[in-house]
Amino acid sequence: xxxxxxxxxxxxxxxxxxxxxxxxxxxxxxxxxxxxxxxxxxxxxxxxxxxxxxxxxxxxxxxxxxxxxxxxxxxxxxxxxxxxxxxxxxxxxxxxxxxxxxxxxxxxxxxxxxxxxxxxxxxxxxxxxxxxxxxxxxxxxxxxxxxxxxxxxxxxxxxxxxxxxxxxxxxxxxxxxxxxxxxxxxxxxxxxxxxxxxxxxxxxxxxxxxxxxxxxxxxxxxxxxxxxxxxxxxxxxxxxxxxxxxxxxxxxxxxxxxxxxxxxxxxxxxxxxxxxxxxxxxxxxxxxxxxxxxxxxxxxxxxxxxxxxxxxxxxxxxxxxxxxxxxxxxxxxxx
Length: 335
Ligand code: KG4
Ligand code: ZN
Prior knowledge:
Layout: E1 5-10, E2 15-22, E3 25-26, E4 30-33, H1 45-66, E5 76-82, H2 86-103, E6 107-111, H3 112-118, E7 131-136, E8 141-146, E9 152-157, H4 163-173, H5 181-188, H6 211-227, H7 231-262, E10 266-270, H8 277-290, E11 293-295, H9 306-318
Parallel strand pairs: 1-5, 5-6, 7-10, 10-11
Antiparallel strand pairs: 1-2, 2-3, 2-4, 7-8, 8-9
The structure holds 5'-O-[(R)-(carboxyoxy)(hydroxy)phosphoryl]adenosine and zinc ion.
5'-O-[(R)-(carboxyoxy)(hydroxy)phosphoryl]adenosine (KG4) is lined by residues 13, 137-139, 164, 167-168, 179, 181-182, 185, 271-273, 275-276, 303-304.
C-alpha cells in the first residue's frame, strides 16, 4: 500500500516550523524561533511576518532533507490556517497553497488549537476518548472535551487574557525579558509559593479570567517598591513562585470541577504553558487524589511546532478532509 506522507507548516506566531509525517509517524520537527522580538518585549506582527518569509524555504528544505523525503513522494501539504497573526499565517498559507498546486496534491488546513491537543497522538501514551484537555498558550486558555481526533468541544475559556500572556506580562513587570513564562517557571522552582498572596478571580462555569490578577500584581509591586526600591531583586524567586502558584490554582479549580461534573478522568494539558514544571507537578499530585490518568506532551510539542500540525493533518487526510485553493487564513479560527 502506498504511504501517506504529509509535509506540514506552522507559521501562526513567532516560530517558523516544518515537519514530515509518514503513516501517522512524525519523522521530524524543524523549528526556527524568531529572536527578533526579544528586544521589543513581545511579538511584533510585521517583524514576525518578515522573519517567516526569510525562514520558510530553509525550514521546509531541512525538514524534507532530514526525513529523506522528496517532494514527489508527498501525499498532501498541510498548514496552520488559524488562529494566529494574520500576516504570519499568510506566509505559511501562501507557501502551502503554491506547493500543493505545483505538485498537484491535496491541501489540508489545520486549526492551531486542535493541533496543540492532537500533539498527544505523536507519542505514547495516547489518551483515549473522551478526555478533557486544558489548553494553555500565549493566546488561549481553554478547557476542551475531546471526543475524537477531529471532534472537540470548548466547555470553558478565558474571558480576557490567556494564562501564557499573564505569565509574560507579569514577567515584564518584574523586568524579565520576553517570553517571561519559562523564566518565572525557573525562578519559581526555588521560591516560596506562599510568601505573597494574590486574589483569585471567580468566573462563571468553566471560564477563566487572568486580567485582574495581572493588575493586582502591578499594584502590589508599586506598593512594595515604595518601601524598598529593590524589592523585586530581593524577592524575585518568592514573587515568581507566588504568581505561578496563583495561576496554577486558578487553572486547577476549573479543571477539577469540569472533570467532576462531566465525569471525565482522562486529563491532558497542551500548549506552551503545559511546559510549566509547577503545573505538571500539581497535575501529577492531583492525579493521585482524583484518580485521574494524566497526559503530558513532550516538551518539544508544547510550544508552537509543526509536528502537531503534521499529526492533525494525518487524521484529516484519513477523513479526506481537504480544502480548496481559495482557502484564506483566519486569525480567529475557532475549534
Ligand atoms: O503555544 P505557544 O508556544 O504559542 C501560542 O500559541 O501562544 O505558547 C507560548 C506561551 C508563552 O506565553 C510562554 O511564556 C508560555 O507559553 N510558556 C510558559 C512556559 N513555556 C512557555 N509559561 C510558563 N512556564 C513555562 N515553562
Ligand atoms: Zn500555540
